[in-house]
Amino acid sequence: MLRSKLLKLLKENKGEYISGQKLSDQLNVSRTAIWKHINELKNEGYQIEAHHKLGYMLVSEPDLLIYEEVSPYLTTNFIGKNYIHKLVIDSTNNFAKEMASKVPDGTVIIAEEQTAGRGRLGRSWISQKGCGIWMSIILKPNIQPQEALNLTQVAAISVVKAIEEVFHVESKIKWPNDIILNNKKVCGILTEMSSEIDKINYVIIGIGVNVNCDNFPEELKGKATSLYLETNSKVDRKKLTASILNNLEFYYNAYLQKGFEYIRPICIEKSITIGRQIKVIANEGEIEGKAVNIDNNGSLVVETKEGKRLSIMSGDVSVRGLLDYV
């Protein structure tokens, strides 16, 4: 892709001028084409100085999660190879649904801002401009529809591992889809699926991470946080985005090849739910008890006060002493 190659050359010579003719020769295109792409990069926020004798010099890059900024940190074989970036979108999951049948496995939809971001059970998700990672990954696994429920937990451990790798901060998983840091929610995961009785058409994993956000609505203060607020330092969104995708491909492949048994120990180790009193709103109604395990199917095992053990495959879980459950 011409744009990526041009940007690579500018970055390699950052702070120094490189002539339009040299760029033209190396990329085997006209100087007019170079000029056109330079202007496109400027419009996206790249600060590029142009001198009629010296050529072009890259001064600074924008804080945008475009492919050219994230790809240097990507080590994936298929996730993120098709990468769609939007400045503003209603919801990356909505857009992913529209695109799912037309794009390859592993396609990533990422936006700087969502105007109608969604969480589980139709809850809204605040997605401020340029301060988070708001993305959806389209997957097309050859597994039974009921097995796709565990992909939420695959995504959850991928986010936890990425936060550890990039920032050396330990976060926990509130089963099955929330990432908790210092007892506040820093990330939510929304998994949606299109399937037949015995066949998955596609799965969409929506991931929303509060990265450098520093202001939350009053009703979320005390419940939501960001990596910036918890570490007191600005976070490199590009590295974290790539690390999440790298870990997602690794654990996704491991799950497909080895089953949930492979990732189960990590889910248990990173759980903030196990060992705590919880309340679950599930299809069976409201259940209260103690979370005691995650079984081999990925279900949460709850022991009621009567001593009965139940396996919960899905539901809205509240943990006593965490967020708003007292």
Order of helices and strands: HHHEEHEHEEHEEEEHHHEEEEE
**What percent of residues are in strands?**
25-35%
Overall average pLDDT? 91
CATH fold-level name of the largest domain: BirA Bifunctional Protein, domain 2
Give the end-to-end Cα distance, rounded to a whole number of Å: 54 Å
* Sheet/helix structural class: alpha+beta
Q: Which residues form runs of ≥5 with pLDDT under 50?
A: none
Q: What is the strand tally?
A: 14
- Give the overall shape: elongated
Which CATH architecture of the largest domain is right? 2-Layer Sandwich
Major sheet characteristics: 7 strands, mixed
How would you name the CATH homologous superfamily of the largest domain? Bira Bifunctional Protein, Domain 2
Which bin fits the share of residues in helices? 25-40%
Figure out the total of helices. 9
Numbering strands along the chain, what is their spatial order in the largest sheet?
Answer: 3-4-5-9-8-7-6
